[in-house]
Amino acid sequence: MVNVTKAFGTGERRFLALGGVNATIRKGEFFTLLGPSGCGKTTLLRLIAGFELPTSGEILLDGQEIGHLPPYRRPVNTVFQNYALFPHMTVAENISFGLEMLNKPKAEIASTVERMLALVKMSELAGRRTDQLSGGQQQRVALARALAPQPKVLLLDEPLSALDLKLRKEMQVELKRIQHETGITFIFVTHDQEEALTMSDRIAVMAKGNILQIGSPSEIYNAPAARFVADFIGDINFIEGQVVVAGEKTAQIRLPGGQVLTARASRPVEGPVTLAIRPEKVGLRHADDDDVPLSGTVTNLVYFGSGTNVHVDVGLGADIVARATAPKVALGDRVGLDLHVTDLSVLAE
Questions:
Q1: Which helix H or strand E contains 180, and what residues bound it?
Q2: Which end of the chain is more exposed for a tag (fewer CB within 10 A), N or C?
């Protein structure tokens, strides 16, 4: 995608849904468009599918511009949020429908349907009508139907959103397995951060019609490029401060209370900045240790099963949260916080 824009309406009612989006999606990868409602991710998916035409810019597939082609002439298929299955047809008939419309030979259709049923583990339900299936089973049928014509790209528009939590997690694993086995490029749309981190090879985080950062789940989580990205992906602590010494890869930041922290920086910075650190990277220590960078009072303990979030007031206006497996602290205790330079980063914006 090269400088892709999409505007709806004209004049005063003109709304820019996408503003100059640029992205290269690699062949055979699981690529996720992640962002809040209204950020433009579904609009971008519809442009790739051909359901909408770009206002400007290019959409290329294997080097060929496809932005002007109708959906049926693109080697792309879509799995919709509501699955859009034919309730009067069986599982096998739903899968074969698209192949029949393409006038494929009957033997090829039968072979493909059998292969798709095995891929999504639905062989035993081939003769059952889709309105007699559970939500997870319907999702598998929709996936098999979309994969049957062997598209170069499969688009998935929040296909797991209607499933309950346990089934959604199971289908996340299944979708990744199917993508790996077929080798087809998947472009997945979701607003669920955990879903994106679990399934994706790379993630594009979107906001207000633009892509803010593209990277692996680890890069997005551990090295966010902007405050929005850091805040949207998982839990994080923000600390405001002023640069006192700027280096090529690190910076020394003075906090409002006078403490100075050293943090990693992707570029030389100056002036007021925001530091970010994940709760699981914040260590708990004795408050009277000589080299403790920050200390404060425990104000809250939030147990969530696999660990506990320890909220500490260090006098900066907002608590810093440390995540620990079995913290030996109580409300009102004085504790020290260990903030390692490699885990504390200066946000680029």
A1: helix 165-182
A2: C
DSSP H/E element including 179: helix 165-182
* DSSP labels, 92-147: HHHHHHHHHHTT--HHHHHHHHHHHHHHTT-GGGTTSBGGGS-HHHHHHHHHHHHH
Alpha-carbon dihedral 13, 34, 31, 75, rounded to 10 degrees: -30
Rounded CA separation 316/331 (Å):
18
Q: Is the CB of residue 95 less than 8 Å from the CB of residue 116? A: yes
Dihedral sign for Cα atoms in the order 217, 219, 221, 225: negative
Structure tokens at 184: 């087809």
Tell me the residue type at 37: S
Identify residue 6 by its one-letter amino acid code. Answer: K
CA distances 23 to 31, 42, 72, 213, 234, Å, are 11, 15, 23, 10, 24
* Residue 18 and residue 5 in contact, taking contact as beta carbons nearer than 8 Å: yes
What pLDDT digit, counting tens, does each position of 185-204 carry?
999 999 999 999 999 999 99
Q: Give residue for tokens 């090879």.
A: 201
Find residue 308's DSSP bridge partners: 303, 324
Domains defined for the chain, CATH in brackets: 2-228 (3.40.50.300), 235-346 (2.40.50.140)
DSSP 195-239: HHHHH-SEEEEEETTEEEEEE-HHHHHHS-SSHHHHHHSS--EEE
Q: How far is CA 152 from the centre of its chain?
A: 22
pLDDT-derived band at 95, boundaries 50, 70, 90: very high
Q: Residue 348 has what pLDDT?
A: 66
How many Cβ atoms are within 10 Å of 110's Cβ, its own excluded? 14
Task: Give burial (CB, 10 Å; 0-12/13-18/19+) of 152.
Answer: middle
Predicted confidence (pLDDT) per residue in 51-82, tens digit: 999 999 999 999 999 998 999 899 999 998 88
pTM for the complete prediction? Answer: 0.89
Written as one letter, the residue type at 186 is: F
